[in-house]
Structure formats: structure tokens, C-alpha cells
Amino acid sequence: MALEDASISDFTRLWRAPEFDAGFTTERAVPALRATLAGLGIDLDAQRNVELDIEARPGKRPRAFCAPIRVPGRVVLVILPQGGQDDYQALFHEAGHTEHFASADPALPAEQRLLGDNAVTEGFAFLFEHLLSDPAWLRSQLDFGPVDDYVRFTALQKLFFVRRYAGKLAYEIELHSGKTLESLPDRYAEHLATAVGVAYPRGDYLEDVDGGFYCTCGHGRSRRSSATT
């Protein structure tokens, strides 16, 4: 499909990338995470303040997420491995958040343990997620064949999200500058389409917004709308 014929939903399909599923099996996900942490000197199972929720149960959301319930006393990494590179990216991203919150100094006041610049926790998250773009990691942790195509794919994906969040920032500056509500759907669609090269739905002009200019804190893994999936 040519780019001029594509829509944002086609990118949703592209990022799923089932052609790489053989290298990212369901059963290998958690062992790969444990082995990666062990290589950094972190015994995941010995971290008493980290809970690993891998139980399959009705209604459990399939995408991994981090629940910092008490920082740093109780941090839960919730996982329902599905396999596929996108599932691994989410798992390692959320594991980065988990290790960040679990390593917070308990002596710090609550506002320093829980609040502040979100770029800090996103930095941890993307450090872990980007391991999946490293040929040496792919070969050592997974039964992965030739890695060039996958590494090129991840570079395209990262470029897309960097451009997307630059477009979001430009739009959100306008959103908070007092422009009339009537003009915002068109401005949202224009900014995002210019950034990534495909049409964006006007109706997401308020849904596809995170508070506090979160788009500047890392290019984000928000999955709340069709625009970000």
C-alpha cells in the first residue's frame, strides 16, 4: 500500500508486525525479562517490593502495565503474555517503569517519589524497551534469525512516534493557547497528518491529549485511541 493511500488504522496493523512473531514467542517473554535483569545484577524474584502478576484470569487486560501501588514498597508488574514483538515492547517498557518505582528512595517525600518530571520514569521505560532494537540482545535472549529487517522496522517505528509526538506538542500548544473550540478538530488533524504523512481523525482532538504536555516526556506508549495504537 502506498503511503498516500494509507490511514492511521493501517499503521496500527503495521506496528503489530506478525511477520516477526516466530522470534517473540509467548513462553519466552518472562524468561527473557528475568535474564535481562539478571545481567544487570537484578534478581526479579528476590525483589520483595516487586510483584509479578502473570496469572491468567477473566477480564485481565492483555497489555502489560505497571501499578505503583506504594512507592517503593509495593510495585506490581501485570503481565498476560500474548507473544509478538509489540507485546514484548510493552512488557519491557513497563518493566522499566517497575524498576524505576521499586528503586525509589523510601526516605524521600511523597512528591519526589510519586510526582515530578515524567521524563524520568519514561527514561527508564524506554531504556528497557529499546533493548529490543539491539542486535546483540536479540541474538542472546531470543531464538532470533537475521535481525536486520527487525532492527530497520524498529527504527521506522521510533521515527514515526518521534514525529507523532512533535505534532502532538505543536497541537497541544494551540489547544492551551485559548483558540476557539470550533477550530481545534481541524488543527489537530492538520498537525498530526503533517507530522506522520497520513490523515488523522478530527474526532480525536480531545481524546488524544495527555495532561501536562506529557508528549514532551518521551514519545509515549499511550494506547487509549486509534491514533496511538
Show unreliable segments.
221-229
Distance between the termini: 19 Å
Indicate the proportion of strand residues.
5-15%
Order of helices and strands: HHEEEHHHHHH
Largest sheet: 3 strands, mixed
Class by alpha and beta content: mainly alpha
Radius of gyration based on Cα positions:
19 Å
- Mean pLDDT score, rounded? 91
Helical stretch tally: 8
Share of helix among residues? 40-55%
- How many β strands by DSSP? 3
- Spatial sequence of strands, sheet with the most strands: 1-3-2
Q: What's the structural domain tally?
A: 2
Quick one: overall form? globular
Task: Give the helices and strands, then pairings.
Blueprint: H1 8-16, H2 29-39, E1 50-53, E2 65-70, E3 74-78, H3 85-102, H4 110-114, H5 119-129, H6 135-141, H7 148-175, H8 184-196
Parallel strand pairs: 1-3
Antiparallel strand pairs: 2-3
Helix pairs in contact: 3-5, 7-8
